[in-house]
Amino acid sequence: MAEANTPLPLTASRSEQIFPTLTSAQIARVAKHGCTRTVRSGEVLVEQGDRAVPFFVVISGELEAVRPTGLTETLLLIVRAGQFTGEISTLLGRSAIGRVRVRQDGKIIQLARESFLTLVQTDAELSAILMRAFILRRAELLAQGIGDATLVGSSHSADTLRIKQFFTRNSHPYTYIDLERDADVQSLLDHLHVSVAETPVVILRGEAVLRNPTNREIANCLGFNEAVDETRVRDLVIVGAGPAGLASAVYGASEGLDVLVVETSSPGGQAGSSSRIENYLGFPTGISGNELAGRAYTQAQKFGAQMLLTTGTRLACDRKLYELEVEDGTRIPARAIVIATGAKYSKLAIENLSRFEGAGIYYGATFVEAQLCSGEEVIVVGGGNSAGQAAVFLAENTKHVYMLVRGPGLTDTMSKYLIRRIEQMHNISLLIHTEVVSLIGVDHLEGVRWRNTKSGKAEEKNIAHVFVMTGANPNTGWLKGCVVLDNKGFIKTGPDLSSEELTGAGWPLTRRPYLLETSLPGIFAAGDVRGGNVKRVASAVGEGSIAISFVHQLLRE
Ligand SMILES: Cc1cc2nc3c(=O)[nH]c(=O)nc-3n(C[C@H](O)[C@H](O)[C@H](O)COP(=O)(O)OP(=O)(O)OC[C@H]3O[C@@H](n4cnc5c(N)ncnc54)[C@H](O)[C@@H]3O)c2cc1C
To answer: Which of 48, 227, 458, 498 has the most neighbouring CB atoms within 10 Å?
Structure first.
């Protein structure tokens, strides 16, 4: 039975954009892509969990979107004449978050997902209206935690944090129940036959109970990878969905290439772990890395690029048609490959570090981590821009931020605007020539000891949150020597490859490699993973886009 709920509460100023009413001319253009049919009250058009769901426009009558919760339902929205159903999962072909049912007899236009994609790719005016509504609807669901997933865990658990990050960075709405704070949690766990030791647990659609699942298990259960045909020969496979990979996906797919992006965890890469990027062109007030990534990902999907959440483990590069091997052994064939696997954070050389990763030691400072240390003292280690951003962001909601840098100051390593902000914040202390020497705690971090390398003076503080922002190393280990790397492990491309290196690698063509081409024809590298790249979002985006023009040249050869 549906409860007498009001539809999703919305910001009045945005409701026109979230629930726009199409004009009759716009409805006529939608109708050309689908079929018109009558519907009767009570008919279920989409069931929660359905994959690749159709898109509906109401001509007369009413539809309702509800979220089933056990025997009851929560009304999410009513779709009236001229309005349409759907949100981001309609575009991505992922499982439906709610149920769509006919509320009042009437007539609707129904578009299969493929026809819907054609519509948004070919009709610029409708594309703008539909995409904006979808993005804003998802934002509302995220803001209100309305989704088909519930996470039960402890705020001191690294796996709970990992799963929270997975949901957040994949923009999948979820409800969080804190083991330590929620009084009713024990009865819920008893009902599910789950012991506290088996947490965190993820409950999907009130049915599937996943005990401390891997990201891949959650992705599979939510059907993230289901719409992807892994055996099809693609024009382009992109490995990594950071800014470089996403830019390649947007340009490649919009220019007609059949594109598949393979990503280990979630779109956004390192940029996704940034609380606010302020120097990216066109965003004068800054944008969070997650928001930038979410928009880029939606844009790539709009043009038909697909994404597979899995890890590229090997390139089968001994043949003309390349194959990317992924973690379950599947080989994805491709005419061209863009490697955009970026870099991963450096770690502190401390023996018991791994015990506290995610339970006091963090490598990104976003809203998810900031919630864990609100009102407390924190440490940021590092003197680069990412450390500066983290310190300024965390200072807003924490009691005090200690910035620990090994060098004599920040001027050689950090942008001036960030240094000025740090100086202006009364609750940030800069400790130069200082390094962390030990971490204290049992199952989560409780204290930190640091030492001044000049004076030798050590100090211990009861601080339970340390943000490590000390640079990154290239993600090239998985290539296992398939392409030529420089002495730091970054991929060499174009003019950086010497004739000797090309001969040694067996370069088979009379032409030299294109600008971003590696020592293997048709395999390109873009972004932080490439030797000589400037480590910035803009340069990653630029390189990812430029790579596509070389892919076109290659496919014409
Ligand atoms: C906290 C922080 C703040 C930053 N702030 C700014 C800023 O304000 N301005 C700015 O210009 N730059 C900033 N940077 C730098 C910027 O984020 C990077 O230069 C940019 O993200 C590089 O993009 P990329 O796509 O090359 O690589 P990455 O962002 O590193 O993305 C690589 C992706 O590849 C995936 N991957 C890796 N290996 C595999 C594999 N084997 N199979 C499948 N997928 C794989 C990863 O999961 C990742 O998603 C910041 C960096 C950090 C860490």
So the answer is: 48
